[in-house]
User: What shape does this take?
Amino acid sequence: MEARGWSQIELAEIMGRPTKLVNEIVAGKKTITPETAVQLGDALGTGPEVWMNLESQYQLSKLTVKDNVIARRAALYVRFPVRDMIKRGWIEANENVEVLEHQFLAYFGMKALGDAPEFAYAAKKAKPLDDISMTQLAWLFRARNLAKAQVSKQYDDQKLRASITALSDLRTAPEEVRHVSKILSLCGVRFVLVEALQGSKIDGACFWLKDDQPVVAMSLRLDRIDNFWFVLRHELEHVLLGHGLDSSFIIDVDIEGMDQQKIAEEERLANDAAAEFCVPQAQLTDFINRVTPYFSEERVTLFARRLNIHTGLVAGQLRRRLDRYDRWSSHLVKIRDIAIKSAPVDGWGLVEHV
Assistant: This one.
């Protein structure tokens, strides 16, 4: 206006708008609407975009964002499974982002949010976290917290090896899984059950606490008798072989979906021990060779009875060996409700407060 020598009255006349409107815009009391932007653009030869942009910038400049609260909260949601952890009670919901940040720092033992969580007590080398999601780590840290709260005997490798026989005697019926926690405790192995977080696909884990105290954690993600015993024996083999002592932890994801051609040697050893525990493999092979292709329900049941094990274990191994996951599902009975009554547990509506 000054460059053109125009007064507010003259600009108002050019635009065909009240002088009061121009006065309020100049005084910063009136926002520039799209209609006014078009008129100012035509009057001053700038186009409407200039005025709409200036209006947007001006309105934004009047807003004050305190401590980037939204950005900080977004950063938490990007990195951590915030909603799932709050739902499970691992983190308390709080509108104060600073309180939330401190909770996550404490949960994962970090000094700063950009740090990598440190899990091991005394591992010779930290396990690379590139292939481990924060959802899986959150589950692992909760399992460790439960295990740390337990009181157990000093770990005895010989007792654990001897206890495999006692554990094998429990394969006869689903109800027998209730004895697992006590047997492992007598060997100095801490046993915990933590429901998996959505999408984590965790079946189990093996890790060690101070003084070389082993922990076996299971998610019972697949509620079946065959999967329970396979995963348990798989993790116990990790313990017996000392896996995880040198690399923080062993975490087993989707054991049934593992590509057997690409798995690490330690996983192959654990799988072989688990399969042998569920059903003696030489006898299973002999059964398959004798019966193929006539796997009647009666033959499968009689074979399990001869081995004095639950039919579900034979069914599970046959499904794996023959790649026939459509068969014998009726024998794969559920055991979760039994297992969670006799071990430290977090999930399925139950929470150990530690």
